[in-house]
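2 proteins. here.
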Amino acid sequence: MSDLENSVDSSSGGTPAVAEKATGARTAVSSRVRTLFCMLGVSGRTIRDGPFTISSFNFSSLPLGHCKVRPIASIPMKRFKNLRTLLPLVIAIAVAGFAISSGENKTDEKKTIKALMVTGEGYHDYKTQKKIISEGLSRRLNIEWTIIHDKSAKECKANLSKKDWAKGYDIVVYNLCHAKEADEAFIDSVAAVHEKGIPAVVLHCTMHSFHWKVKAKDGDEKTWVKFLGVRSRNHGPKAPITVAKTIEHPVTKDLPDGWKTPNGELYNVNEVLDTATVLAKGDNGKVKEAQVCIWVNEYGKGRVFGTTLGHHNSTMETKEYLDLLANGITWALNSK
């Protein structure tokens, strides 16, 4: 049996902290509003949560609390001059309260991303990497993980051959290395899931999986290569990689131009398909020219974000790498 596990760490996500911050700010705003209303004495009753209108401005959502004030008849005329002077300020503070409240609601109602990670086989420390990726992204996104960690290509094939294996997931993240798989029908069926619309993230050795042992048909590109958007068959020696952005893009917006990985295994990308957009190239100082290392691809109705970076745990656990993955997921999930 495969190692199928739910690696959800809701406590590590950013949502609770954001909600707490928004709630605290809103409380401070509403406190000022209560104070101003008490100072102005704008009502002859106890102001509580509920409808309260000055002219045409509705404060029905403001938590004004309990603020007993004097009857209108006992308020000096000077107070009404204060009211006319301060009313715009009261309204401005109230609007700010509503804006913060709206932001808080959006945070609370933010949809949880249901992500499936498919990982496994040899040559890499997938046991550690699945934790680095899932925990690191859970700190950046509201995301819930299901992880399939297969110990062999046979297990992977069995799991991804199950009916509706990707149903219910918003995105699939591949971090695997199955270079010897030769079953074209199986490979086509996996790619078809994404061609129909489920977004994907493809990392490192995923670019060496599912196509080495398959022949192209009638001059057409191999199915998995079309899904990836690039073709790679080998890599160079291990060495740190300097990453240079080629264009500005939401995926790489937080990536420092010229970022150098702690260590690296630069893949040689032999072809970039027309459906793909190159976002960055890498140079390890040992190649004739920089190689494509970050890109996005449009595959049928699905979006694909890919990077060949990530052989070493030391690279994957950096802030730059995890921010890149988070932005890649966000981009892939956005509709075209």
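next one coming up
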Amino acid sequence: MKKKVIIQSIGLLASVLLISGCQEASEDPSEDIAEESGQDNSEETPENNSNSDGLNESDSVSDEEDQDETFEDVSVTVDYEADLLKPSSIKALVNKQYALPEDYSPEDLVTVEVPTILENPEVNQLREAASIALSDMFQAAEEEGIKLYARSGYRSYQTQVQLFDSYVSNHGEEAANRYSARPGESEHQTGLAMDVTSESANYQLSEAFGDTEEGMWVAERAHEFGFVIRYPRGKEDVTGYQFEPWHLRYFGEELAQEIYESGLTYEEYLMERGLDIEAGE
């Protein structure tokens, strides 16, 4: 049996549920990433949606002392309860052990003002700060001859239910757990994650994106705008997910810079600084 912390929106406390299993699905089934719209990937073409038209517990995970522990590293302080367990914090930890409440939805979602792929209004949204940062990143990329497209941003708990169930139906639960997130365990529900792609990747979400000029630009520069590649290559045992060069998580520029320079995943970054958290499958 595994423990899963349900992040609480009130009181900043973690309640522990005992469950048997965990997590999400995304692709390889890379050809199946029509997830967000229910349409076939291959039929999607980019739309430059530069405006809002047409949118869219003894069993505690750690001792009390550990849960109240904080650390300071240069410019960033992270608190277990006030940051990691608070859904609305840009530092919130969301993975297979730390889940968002079913009823959580960000209050400051806005439509992104960058070129998008899908017509689904929901997935063309991010929280305001993340949306602004995304626009800045896309503009900087374009000035250097790099054309990026936003494919999937915010997804509600209910949308993730449909997506995960679809992966299970098509590929089985084992594959679904590797390629997709279980409801509540997806960073997309935070409104701080965006999947990006490019024409050279056929507008799809695949590992091949990481080898494109656009994917390499993102890997080298995204942190400057507050984003990090959340599921890097070789860290599958830590994150619980396959390498996803397209999945960007917004942490703000200071924290993103520190995570990037550390060469660690967010989980490793937190553990190295003394926070008692769980990671992996």
